[in-house]
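Predict the 3D structure for this chain.
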Amino acid sequence: MSTDEIRALPARPSKENLRKQAKRRAKADSLGLAEAQRRVAAGYGSKSWAELMRQVDALRGAVKPALSSLGQAAHDGDLETVRRLLREGHPVDGRPGEGGTPLWQACAGDAADEVRLAVVDTLLTAGANPRRDDSGETALHAAAKRGPLALVERLIRGESLEWQVDCKRRTALAVAKRGDAADKAAIVELLDRPVIRDPAFRAAIEAIHSGDIGGLKRLLDREPRLLRDRIVEPECYRQARRQQYFRDPKLFWFVANNPTLVKRMPANMVEVATAMIERAVDQADLDYALMLVMTSATARNQGLQVPLVKCLLKAGASPTTEAIDATLGHCEVAPVLALLETGHPMTAPIAAALGRLDVLPQLLKAASSHDIQRAFGLAAINDRTEAVRLTLDAGADPNQPMPVHTHCFALHQGALHDDVALLDLLLSRGARADLQDKLWGGTPLGWAIHQGKKRARAFLEEHLKGEKPRAAGSGMPGPQ
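Done. Predicted structure below.
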């Protein structure tokens, strides 16, 4: 068969087989992948790789939602058209119902790697939201599955969340492990955070997680640097602007198991922490580990949270305002009660979060405007409706971002709690139902729909129709 002969596609063509053909052609003829794909497409009588992929879909009877012009151009890797459509004002995140944003289409499309990367860079620069999951997964999931590594890195720099799950509750890491990217191993390493390449550091972490005090002591005595050094993760994580509470970790932080890296912590974790403290843990690490312990779900579930808190306090750890806000912002009460037992002063934010209505009014009178706003946010996060009322009376603004969860507002929290009494109170005090959260662009009603909160959804839908919504006590129960 001559190189110019046009071949017919089989009755049930496989995109994966065609991709492999292009890769073999690129290797055999020393071509770039884009040129190899073009030549393979030409061999089947198609003008471009994208056209060949559409022919495959047609032969296989694939039924796909109609794409917007921008979504189609992104999927096809038509960079010039993408740029033109953006200049003309086409919405960068596409339109609802097209089966995936233009950013996802670019990552999941069939263009060559370098073309997909250029399209993704253009869309992110134009403000595309990488956390949208209209297709059932994010752009990062699609990139993790197929690669290349540079595309995954660009999405991380563009504020993708490596921990965000798809409709099957899979992270990008889980998808990458099952993917077929040429640089699969590098992608898996990048997404398997924290990224630790120092073998001595990794051995010390394994000793912490297994409760091997003797082995840990030997490692630390042999290499004291392990308590001082930070693990430096890949550059793309430092270039991301979002907050990452466990980025570039110190060894002592691992006593908290937060984030959850092992399903069960060793029962002797207090003794493990003590062995490290005896070898001179820095003050900043004591303080930060305290915050991690105070918000550790596994430490709480195993009954280790309060003992670890007391161990760290005895060693000189100091609870910062940030640590207390983070703890109460995750509805962790026991660690804060432990702090109060050791003499930490009761404050307006703490009282609001705990629902201590007996002391909150007096504390609010002496509180700064900043602390009143903190108290309001923590009360809303912890579903303390009466405490929210008191903070609003004291001057709190219902349309300021929440503490800790700064991407959302009090109405979002009310929707999440399915608490009609709280929603009614907030709306009556001027809370705006049209404010969108800063991560996913969802309104309070959107949150209620997404989380299946039926009472909140009905209440907010009535409000947005301009009707007088029913308050708690008129058929819609309030907080328990």
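Confidence is low (pLDDT under 50) at residues 469-480.
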